[in-house]
């Protein structure tokens, strides 16, 4: 598969996942402001992990339209990804630490920290791609990690019972 095709497919998946976030919000009985802080955190993760790959894909597709494509196209794309992923990681780590111990235990903790570790590996891969490789796959790996995390958050928002909801 060519990079342009892969990026187009990733952009479609990202838009679909962002749309699913709207479906989740509409079908929940309470408004977002009445959700538990954990569910709002999951929703932010779902939206962020959908919007960032969409932005990365669109920027890369734009750079691919330049004829001839810039020699260092994948370095540039990894640079854009890196400048977004570092603040994203810091913000989400701080947000996870602000959750109460009862909210952030068990499966929540078991999923967050390995995904956070994979995200750090992806950030390292972007740095390596900028410095050495200039290949498509490290950049695309960053997109895939975001999309997989978004799918996981969507699944959790849909399947897990709602907590801290006001009585009707």
Would you mind describing this structure in some detail?
This protein has helices at residues 3-27, 37-65, 73-98, 107-133, 136-159. It is mainly α. It has 5 helices and no strands. 26% of the residues are buried. The model has no long low-confidence stretch (mean pLDDT 91).
How many domains in all?
Answer: 1
Helical coverage, percent range: over 70%
Largest sheet: none
| Rg, nearest Å | 17 Å
Report mean pLDDT, rounded to a whole number: 91
Q: Percent of residues in beta strands?
A: under 5%
The total of beta strands comes to: 0
Keywords:
single chain, 168 residues, mainly alpha
Write the layout of secondary structure elements.
Blueprint: H1 3-27, H2 37-65, H3 73-98, H4 107-133, H5 136-159
Short description:
The protein has helices spanning 3-27, 37-65, 73-98, 107-133, 136-159.
């Amino acid at each position: 598969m060519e990079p342009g095709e892969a990026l187009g497919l990733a952009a479609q998946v990202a838009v679909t996942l962002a749309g699913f976030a709207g479906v989740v919000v509409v079908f929940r009985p309470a408004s977002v402001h009445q959700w538990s802080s954990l569910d709002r955190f999951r929703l932010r993760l779902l939206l962020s992990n959908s919007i960032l790959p969409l932005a990365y894909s669109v920027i890369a597709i734009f750079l691919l339209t330049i004829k001839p494509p810039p020699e260092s196209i994948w370095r540039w794309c990894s640079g854009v990804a890196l400048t977004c992923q570092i603040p994203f990681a810091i913000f989400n780590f701080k947000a996870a630490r602000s959750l109460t111990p009862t909210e952030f235990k068990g499966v929540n903790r078991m999923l967050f920290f390995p995904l956070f570790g994979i995200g750090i590996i992806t950030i390292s891969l972007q740095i390596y791609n900028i410095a050495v490789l200039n290949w498509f796959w490290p950049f695309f790996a960053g997109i895939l990690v975001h999309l997989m995390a978004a799918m996981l958050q969507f699944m959790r928002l849909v399947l897990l019972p709602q907590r801290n909801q006001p009585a009707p």
